[in-house]
Amino acid sequence: MVIVFVLLALFAAGGLYSALAVRRYTVRSEKLSAPARLAVVSDLHAQRYGSGMRPLIRAIEAEKPDLVIFTGDLFSNFDHDAPVEELLRGLGGRWPCYYVTGNHECWSGDEGFLRKMAMLEENGVKKLSGALETVTAGGARFNVGGVDDPDAKRVCCAMGGYDGFAAQLDRVREGAENGLFTVFVAHRPEMIGEYAAKGFDLILCGHAHGGQWRIPGLLNGVFAPGQGLFPRYAGGLYERGGSTMIVSRGLLQCARGLPRFYNRPELVIVDIAPEKKEREKGTP
C-alpha cells in the first residue's frame, strides 16, 4: 500500500511540474530556398514570468529566432497588462513581431481593446487583421498573414470596422497567390478545415491550452475552449490536405484556477526550411 501511495504521489508531482518547456518543430517545403526560425508565443493571458518577464525573454533570445509570432490571447480581458508591456518592450525592435487577436482581447471592451492595440503599436508589433506581408528573414522569403479572432465583432467600433472572419480569410488567401511559402496565423485551431481549404502551407494557432490535463501516450487533452471534452487539436502538429498546423499549448499556467497536468506551458519554435534533396545514386 505504501508503494502504491508513493507511486501515485510521484505521478501527481510529475504531472504538476510546470516549468517552461521549449517545443521545437521543423517544417520543410520546396517553396523555400533558405531556412528561417519562428518563435511562437501563445495564450500568455498576461501571466507574469519573473521580474521584467526576463525568464521568457531570455528563453526566446536563446533560440535566436528570425521572427516572433503572437497567436492571440497575449493579453487578458482585464487591465492587468503590465507583464505584457514588459514582454513587448523586451522583444519589440529586436525582432520583427506579428500578432493576431484572440478572444480575450476582443472581450476587453472598446476602451480596453484600444489600450492593448496601442501597446502593440508602441512596441513595433504588427497586427494582422486580414492582412499579409511578404518578409525576408534568415535568408528566406515567405508570406506571413493572419486574421482576427471571430469575436472581433464585439469591438468592431474600436477597430474602425470589421468586415468579418470570412472576408479577412479571403484577403489573406488572395495575397498568398504569389507562390511563396505562406505562414498563416489564427487563434482557433478547431477551424483548421477553413484554413486548409485556402491552401496555406503552415498554420499557427493556440487557444486550446493543451487540453489543460493530459496523460502522455493515452490522452492528449481533457478540455479545450471551442472544442469541449477530449479536443482533437489540443496541441502539437497536425496535417490537413497540403497544410501543416502547429498548435501551441500556450503559456498560461492555470486556467480558471485549474493547474495544468502533464501539460507544461510552452514556447514553440518552428524552423521552416527547404525540402531536402535526395542524393543521386553513387553520390557519397
Describe this structure in words.
There is one protein chain. With 284 residues, the protein is of the alpha/beta class. The chain has a domain at 18-183 and 253-274: 4-Layer Sandwich (Purple Acid Phosphatase, chain A, domain 2). The protein is built from seven helices and 16 strands. The longest helix is centred in the N-terminal third of the chain and has 15 residues, at 2-16.
The percentage helix is 10-25%
Distance between the termini: 60 Å
Order of helices and strands: HEEHEHEHHEEEHEHEEEEEEEE
Strand content: 25-35%
As a whole number of angstroms, the C-alpha radius of gyration is 19 Å
Major sheet attributes: 6 strands, mixed
Structural class label: alpha/beta
Regarding quaternary structure, what we see is: single chain
Number of helices: 7
Q: How many β-strands, per DSSP?
A: 16
Name of the CATH architecture of the domain at 18-183 and 253-274: 4-Layer Sandwich
CATH class of the domain at 18-183 and 253-274: Alpha Beta
Strand numbers in spatial order across the main sheet: 1-16-2-3-4-5
Low-confidence stretches: 279-284
Q: Mean pLDDT across all residues, rounded?
A: 90
Shape: globular
Task: Quote the CATH topology of the domain at 18-183 and 253-274.
Answer: Purple Acid Phosphatase, chain A, domain 2
Quick synopsis:
The chain has 284 residues and is of the alpha/beta class.
How are the elements arranged and paired?
Layout: H1 2-16, E1 21-29, E2 36-41, H2 54-62, E3 67-70, H3 82-91, E4 97-99, H4 103-106, H5 109-122, E5 125-127, E6 131-137, E7 140-146, H6 165-175, E8 182-185, H7 192-196, E9 202-205, E10 223-224, E11 228-229, E12 236-240, E13 243-247, E14 254-255, E15 258-259, E16 266-274
Parallel strand pairs: 1-16, 2-3, 3-4, 4-5, 7-8, 8-9, 9-13
Antiparallel strand pairs: 2-16, 6-7, 10-11, 12-13, 14-15
